[in-house]
Amino acid sequence: MKARWFTLLTVLLCCSACGAPSLRHKKDINKLLAASDFAAAEQKLEAAKNKEYKQRDALLYYLDTGAVLHDAGRPAESDQRFAWAQARIDDLFTQSITAHAGQYIINDLTVPYYPAPYEQALTYYYRAMNFLDQNDVPGALVEANKAVFYIDRLPKDRGPGCYTEPFVQYVASLVFESAGKRDDARIARTRARQSYAALPGGEEAAWPLSPGALPGPQWGEVVLVHANGIMPLKASQTVQVAWGDILFWMNTLQEGRDTDPALQNAIMAGFMGNAITLSYPVLLLQPYVITSSQVLTQDGEVYDTQLVADVAAAAQADLEQNKPGVLLRMALRAAAKRVAAVQTRHAVTQAADDETAGNLAGMFVSLLGALTEKADTRQWFTLPAQFRMAHFYVPAGDQNIVLRFQDGFGNIVGEHTFENVPVRPGGRVYLHYRTAK
Question: Which of 136, 148, 170, 403 has the least C-beta neighbours within 10 A?
Fold first, then answer.
C-alpha cells in the first residue's frame, strides 16, 4: 500500500506540468483572424506547436491549423492537416478513449484530446470543401460518405451534435448531387431537414431552402458559406460541489460505478467535509460585431444568408452534457489525492519515527495534488461561432459576387467580393468566406 502511494507521488511530480493551450494564445490568434490575417495566424500557431500544444494534443493543433489554412484559401495544406487529424481520431477510438486511468489520479489533461461529436462532424465538412476548392468532386464525395456514415452511427439523442450535424448532412447532400448520386442526395437531404426540424425553434429557424429549378439553360448555381464569429473560449472556474451531488452522479454515471471501490468509500465517507472546491471549465463568450450577411449578385439580386449551424451553441451544450462526469472525476481525484496524503503521512511518520516529518510529507502531497488539479480547457477554438449560407442562381459566365456583412442593427460594416467566379450553364460553384470581427 505504501509503495502504491509513493508511486502516485512520483506520477504527480512528473505530470504537474500538464496544461492546455492558454487563453492568451487563443485570444492572440483570434485577433489575427478578426483582421483576416490568416497567414500570420497560421505562423503563430506553428510557432506555438511545441509550447502551447503538448504531444498528446497534436490532434488539436492540426484541427486549429487546418481551419485557419482553409480560411486562408490554402485547401491542399488544410486537407493535409485534417487528414492527419482524422487518422489520429481513428487511432484514439481503436485504443479506447474511455480508458482514462490518469483522469482519476491527476487531471483530465493527462489523456489525449478527443473531439466532441460536433467537432468530428465538421472535419468532414472542411475536407469536402477543401476538395471542392480544388475541383476534386470525387474527393469531396469520399468525405460526404464518411460524414453521413459517422452521423448515422451516433445515438439518436445526440444532444450537442444536433446544432451542426444537419448542416454537415445538407452539405453532404449537395456533394452527392454534384457527383450525380441523386438517391444518396435525397436521403441525406431528408435527414438534414428532419434534424433541422428538431432544433429549438423548429424547421423554419434554420432550413437552407434550395433555390428551386434553374431559371433557364444559361444559368448556374452558387452555394455560398459564410463562416462567422468567434467561438466562446474555455477557461477555468472554481466551483463548490456538495458531496450529496457527487454521490448522485456516482449512482447515475457508468464511470462512477466502475471506480475503484477504495475511492468510492472515500467519497461515501465524505472525509473532506460537506462540500468540495473544484476547478471546472466554463465558456467565455467572445464579442464580435458581424451578426448576419447578405449576397449581392452582378445582376442586382440580393439574398440574405441563413444561419445553418450554431457551433457556439453546440459547444455550450457539449459542456453542459459532460458536466456531471467532469465533476465526478474531479471529486474522485480529490479523494485519491487525500488518501495519498494520509498514507504518505503515516508511512513517513513510521519510517522516520517523527510525526512532524510525517505531517510535512502529507502536506507536501496535498499541495502537489492541488497543483495538479486543473480544468480541461482544450477546444477546437479556430472554428467559427456560426455558419451561414446562401443558395441561389446566377447567369452563366464570370460573375462578381459581393458578400456584405451586417451588425446587429442591420448596418453594413464591411464586404468581400468574389471576383470572376466561373459559373457554367447548369453547373454549381461553391464559395466560402470567414469573418471574425
Answer: 136
The mean pLDDT value for 42-51 works out to 92
CB neighbour burial string for 205-235, b if at least 16 within 10 angstroms, e if fewer:
ebbbeebeeeeeeebbbbbbbbbbbbbbbbe
Distance CA 13, CA 7 (A): 10
- For residue 193 the three cell numbers come to 431537414
The pLDDT tens digits for 86-130 are 999 988 876 654 445 444 444 456 678 889 999 999 999 999 999
Q: Which residues of 392-403 are buried (b: 16+ CB within 10 A; e: fewer)?
A: bbbebeebebeb
Choose among 320, 245, 281: nearest CA to 109: 281
CB 20 within 8 A of CB 377: yes
Biggest alpha carbon–alpha carbon distance for the chain: 94
Nearest to 311 by CA among 26, 116, 148, 63: 116
Tracing cell 434553374 back to the chain, one arrives at 214
Q: What is the dihedral of CA 357, 362, 368, 373, to 10 degrees?
A: -170
d(CA 60, CA 112): 9
Q: What is the pLDDT of residues 261-284, one digit of tens each?
A: 545 544 544 444 455 556 778 899
What distance lies between CA 23 and its chain's CA centroid?
15
pTM metric for this prediction: 0.82
DSSP-derived secondary structure for 134-160: TT-HHHHHHHHHHHHHHHHHS-TT-GG
pLDDT tens figures, 405-424: 999 999 999 999 999 999 99
3-state secondary structure of 310: strand
Q: How far apart are CA 86 and CA 93, in angstroms?
A: 11
Output the CA–CA distances (angstroms, integers) from residue 326 to 104, 280, 319, 330, in the order listed: 10, 8, 9, 6
Residue 377 in grid coordinates: 480547457
CB 138 within 8 A of CB 179: yes
Alpha-carbon distance of 234 to 310, in angstroms, equals 17
Cα 97 from chain centre: 16
End-to-end, the C-alpha distance of the chain in Å comes to 56
Tell me the helix, strand and coil percentages in the chain, rounded to 5. 55, 20, 25
- Kindly list the distances between the CA atom of residue 211 and the CA atoms of 208, 220, 222, 405, 423, in Å, as whole numbers in the listed order: 9, 11, 10, 22, 16
Ramachandran category for residue 353: left, alpha or beta (phi over 0 → left; psi -120 to 50 → alpha) = left
Q: Of 356, 365, 373, give the one whose Cα is nearest residue 281.
A: 373
